[in-house]
User: What shape does this take?
Amino acid sequence: MILLDTDHVSVLLEERDRRHAQLRARLREAGDSLSISIVSIEEQLRAWLAKIHGVTDPQRQIVPYGRLKRVFTFLREWPISGWNQAAADQFQQLRSLRTKIGSQDLKIACIALANDALLLSANLRDFERVPGLRVEDWLN
Assistant: This one.
């Protein structure tokens, strides 16, 4: 399985991004199942909700509401890898080892580990600190 980090999801959501078509093609050619972590979905939703709530002018809320809708439409096409007991156990183990990585990234890494998945992320430096995690960047 291939698990997409939030940065790869963002590129797939933004068709105007110069990397969009190339990433889509590479994912089609991968021949492996694809998934998005529930944590990446949380990050996408938090970002768009913050933009909506940061603007009081209803006219200026049109675009962020449209983008939020686009996220939901996009997600209908994707399997979602959830936060489960195996991921939570991995999280506790890596926290006890004092792995230097932010909580959200660590949760995504733990979902990848629990599913024996290759994680696609542009954030290689932080994820390389997670023992046993396979991580690659398909955006650069």
